[in-house]
Amino acid sequence: MAHFAELKTKPDPTGFTTDTHQVVERVVVVGNDCVPSDMHVDGETWCINFFKGGIWKQTSYNNNFRKQYAGIGMIYDPVKDKFLSQQPFASWALDSNDDWQAPITYPTVIDDGADPVVWSYIISWNETKYNADNTQGWEAIKSNDTSETPTKYNWNGTAWVSE
What we know:
The chain is mainly β. Helix content is 10%, strand content 32%. The strands form three sheets. It has a five-stranded antiparallel sheet with strand order 3-1-2-4-5. Strand 6 and strand 7 (100-101) form a beta hairpin. The N and C termini lie far apart (52 Å).
């Protein structure tokens, strides 16, 4: 079976820019008898005719082409001919593999180091902290902290420091 994504041109769904993007509205399955080969224009034409218009691009369920399988809300980049996830935060940028990366490297310490692991850090990105101080951004709480107000930790590049 072949899979096709219907695209709609919309303003940046994240609101980070005033750019317009081709955003995935839905993904449909089409019989292989309607598609002569992967990424063949006849498959897109079949979708246009069957669904009465629209912009259609084939997507690979096995990620064999166009980077990754399209999902609703993803962005199709016609220059790169790839489906990309939406930008998660305004400060994040695409790397050479077209994956979104934070401006600060993800923390290397993610748990207590015990074997077996007793607790892990629940790590998240805080855009507000990054905007206030571009050396900050990653924050965490410990998975075993059940207090009403868990202790927050900030990543300093080598270790977690409590607030």
